[in-house]
Design brief:
- The protein is an all-alpha fold.
- Helix content is about 95%, strand content about 0%.
- The radius of gyration is 21 Å and the shape is rod-shaped.
Length: about 100
């Protein structure tokens, strides 16, 4: 692979990693909030024992689970991009010899 192509791909990977890491920080804050909300809803459902509070608890748990899946996807994407970045750096150092 030609050095300018490798450099361009490295730049793109770096920019994408920055965006994903920023997004991960936001997602983790949201996840923390959603988990706390789900726990609050669980306690309210136990205390009130109504169908409505049980539904609210299930909804809150589903939201928290969906956010956790999204977080896991972002973490996987970050790991893939880091591996791609490492590969590109290896290619660049190999081509530079």
């Amino acid at each position: 692979m030609v050095r300018p192509v490798i450099e361009r791909r490295l730049t793109e990977a770096c920019e994408r990693l920055q965006r994903l890491r920023t997004e991960l920080v936001v997602i983790e804050e949201q996840l923390e909030h959603l988990v706390a909300a789900a726990e609050d809803a669980r306690v309210r459902a136990l205390v009130s024992e109504t169908a409505q509070s049980g539904g609210e608890h299930r909804d809150a748990e589903r939201h928290a689970a969906a956010m956790e899946r999204h977080r896991n996807d972002i973490v996987k994407n970050i790991a893939r991009l880091e591996a791609t970045q490492d590969d590109l750096l290896d290619r660049m150092s190999f081509d530079g010899r």
